[in-house]
Specification:
The complex is a heterodimer of chains A (112) and B (113).
Chain A lengths: L4 E3 L2 E5 L4 E6 L8 E6 L6 E6 L5 E4 L2 E6 L4 E6 L8 E8 L6 E3 L3 E6 L1
Parallel strand pairs in A: 2-11
Antiparallel strand pairs in A: 1-3, 3-8, 4-5, 4-9, 6-7, 7-8, 9-10, 9-11
Chain B lengths: L3 E4 L2 E4 L5 E7 L5 E8 L3 E8 L6 E2 L6 E4 L5 E6 L8 E8 L8 E2 L3 E5 L1
Classes of the chains: A mainly beta (112), B mainly beta (113).
């Protein structure tokens, strides 16, 4: 079983502030790194799938970077809004490339 | 295009009863997955399938069985429900595992008394 670790577990951020959090994953046999956004009482929705070292992807105010050599990815949110409140999950494929192992997530709460 | 749908949305069972959860996808995806979500545990993989007629065990398969008789459907069965199986169950599908997004259904909330 692969270890995918996310930190911090939870985060409270003032509306308008920017924030970031981390996903750590095994640096060997890298295939891809996924980020999902999971709002309470809904189902997870994909944000990014990252495959190349040094990759940076952006979707509105949310962006992510990837370092496959050291095994981490950062998710950044610029100018947080209340609708950004959610749990952010990262996931990493197993060696056989058939399934994802999910981290336990970073629960983000934006304070108005 | 409905994406991934799950039936039922909510169910209450008594200990020892059986039930089947249905997942259907209309995206022609090869891969399908069943997860359970419990507080503080994130998403844990129960069983998965890489194609019609194939299934494999995930992280927490005990007490569950699955079948993938048709490409678009993935069934999760509980033969004898236990209170420990109280959870929210999510189905997901993808065209390939590692580099393609998994699309999730809306979830089934199951309460076992």
């Amino acid at each position: 079983i692969l270890n995918v670790e996310q930190s911090p577990q939870s985060l409270h951020v003032q509306e308008g502030d920017s924030t970031n959090f981390t996903c750590s994953f095994p640096s060997s046999n890298f295939y891809a790194l996924h980020w999902y956004r999971w709002e309470t009482a809904k189902s997870p929705e994909a944000l990014f799938v990252m495959t190349l070292n040094g990759d940076e992807k952006k979707k509105g105010r949310i962006s992510a970077t990837l370092n496959t050599k050291e095994g981490y990815s950062y998710l950044y949110i610029k100018g947080s809004q209340p609708e950004d409140s959610a749990t952010y999950l990262c996931a990493f494929p197993n060696f056989g490339n058939e399934k994802l192992t999910f981290g336990t997530g970073t629960r983000l709460t934006i304070i108005p | 295009n409905a994406g991934v749908t799950q039936t039922p949305k909510f169910r209450v069972l008594k200990t020892g009863q059986s039930m089947t959860l249905l997942c259907a996808q209309d995206m022609n995806h090869e891969y399908m997955y069943w997860y359970r979500q419990d507080p503080g545990m994130g998403l844990r993989l129960i069983h998965y399938s890489v194609g019609e007629g194939t299934t494999a065990k995930g992280e927490v398969p005990d007490g569950y069985n699955v079948s993938r008789l048709k490409k678009q459907n993935f069934l999760l069965g509980l033969e004898s429900a236990a209170p420990s199986q109280t959870s929210v169950y999510f189905c997901a599908s993808s065209s390939r595992a590692s580099q393609e997004t998994q699309y999730f259904g809306p979830g089934t909330r199951l309460l076992v008394l």
